[in-house]
Structures are given as C-alpha cells and as structure tokens.
Specification:
A hairpin with a 2-residue loop joins strand 3 and strand 4. The strands form 3 sheets. This protein has a 3-stranded antiparallel sheet with strand order 2-3-4, with no helix packed on it. The protein has a two-stranded parallel sheet with strand order 1-5. The protein is of the alpha/beta class.
Length: 180
Amino acid sequence: MLSWHRRSPREEVLSSVLNSPCGRWLVEWSSGGLCSIKSPGDPVQDRPGQDILPIWLEKAWELFWEGETFHVTFCLERPIHDFTRRVYEVTAGIPFGETMTYGQVAEISGNPRAARGVGSIMRSNPWALFIPCHRVIGADGDLRGYGGVWGIPLKKRLIAYEKKISMDNRELLIRDSEKR
C-alpha cells in the first residue's frame, strides 16, 4: 500500500539531479516525501545548484536501480480520485522487470473498461520510476506513450534494464541456493 502526504503550499520543495543507468533524472521532494521524478533530458534538469538528498531518498534511489523493494511517501498537491489512487497502487505493485497491459491495470483497479483512463493517469504520473508507468504496455505488447523528451526509446530501455537486473538477481539466488 502506498503512503500519501498532502503537501502544504508552505512546504519547501528541494531538488537534485540524480544519475542512473538510464540517464539523469530530476527528483523533487519536501519534508513530507517525494514530490516528483522527471525523466532524462527534461530541460529543467540543467538548472544550476542541487540540494542534498535526504537519506530515505538516496536509499530508495539505490534500491530501485538494484530491483529491490523500498518505501517512500508520495506528496500530493491536491486530492486524487479513488480510481487514480487504485491505478497508482496497482502500477506500483508491478514487479521489477515485468509488465502489465493498460487493460489489466484497469481491471485490477476496479474498472475493466478504463484502459484509456489508465493511459491518461500514467501520462500525468509525477512519480515516474517509483510508480513505474513504464511497466504498463499495450494489449498487443507494443510500448505505448511515455513522457519526457526520450519517450518510447526510454521506456524500452527501462524495461530492458529491469529484465536484465531481474535475470541477474535470479541467477545469483540460484547459485546461492546451490552452494548450500
């Protein structure tokens, strides 16, 4: 279950550009939690100055790229609809290195006819990566829409990266169990 925090307009939002195996990302947070993650190439990333990351965010960033479980609180500027919240919950539950279709997310979220609605929600997801909208694909297996400058090529790269890390992690587990 995801944790939410309603951010006050008076809460200071800090930011930093973080490096990853899939490019640079602009991350914004407040004392209440994660405000946004923006994809590589976003022009706002070239602004000067960086704030020092809080430990919880530094650890979550590291764990994400290793395919490990982590927990953060997501900051909201305004309330979100129940269906949107359920879509975020389902999407956050898609395992690292795996995908689901927009229709599957819609069905599990309680509205099987809302595949396009899921697409709209994913398009406006401010917490890319941590609510992994890149793991949601078309019913035919095609990659559909992904925000930011790099779009579909970035979505493809993220999925490929995650599949490789997942495979590497499985192989390590198998080798470890064989040693016992």
